[in-house]
């Protein structure tokens, strides 16, 4: 049986900035990823010495965070300015094992989001979901069933 074509994807490395425990500025790269077959989510992957750590963030949450405070619980975002006066989005992550407050340049996030909208325009996400296949996978059905 032929494999279905791979879903279109968008990937972009974005430099994030935060303060370490000693109050020193630290910059690191995180990979932002988007897949048409998972149209509501953006995956952020932090590349750290102990292994990659990934977080799913709603694409709509990232969009809202460009211009206004958004989110609650594990992920919160809000617009701001960095020390050099550049527009940034603050990303505040919380988990049982700790927290991370970092910021990304707004222009970099906007470029990434613009690229995702070419793949799946806003409001078209539901058309990308194959609910029958999703239910089948959850229930353990095989392709032949």
UniProtKB/TrEMBL annotation:
Pfam families: SsgA. Keywords: Cell cycle, Cell division, Septation, Sporulation. It comes from the Bacteria. It is found in: Cell septum. GO terms for cellular component: cell septum. GO terms for biological process: division septum assembly; sporulation resulting in formation of a cellular spore. Signal peptide: none annotated. Belongs to the SsgA family. This is Streptomyces sporulation and cell division protein, SsgA. It comes from Nocardioides psychrotolerans.
């Amino acid at each position: 049986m032929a494999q279905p074509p791979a879903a279109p994807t968008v990937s972009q490395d974005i430099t994030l900035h935060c303060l370490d425990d000693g109050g020193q500025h630290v910059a690191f790269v995180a990979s932002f990823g988007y897949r048409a077959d998972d149209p509501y989510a953006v995956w952020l992957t932090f590349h750290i010495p102990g292994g990659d750590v990934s977080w799913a963030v709603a694409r709509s949450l990232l969009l809202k965070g460009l211009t206004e405070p958004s989110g609650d619980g594990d992920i919160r975002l809000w617009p701001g300015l960095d020390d050099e006066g550049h527009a940034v989005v603050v990303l505040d992550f919380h988990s049982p094992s700790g927290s991370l407050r970092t910021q990304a340049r707004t222009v970099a996030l906007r470029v990434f989001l613009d690229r995702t909208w070419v793949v799946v325009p806003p409001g078209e996400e539901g058309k990308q979901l194959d609910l029958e296949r999703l239910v089948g996978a959850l229930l353990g059905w095989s392709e032949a069933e």
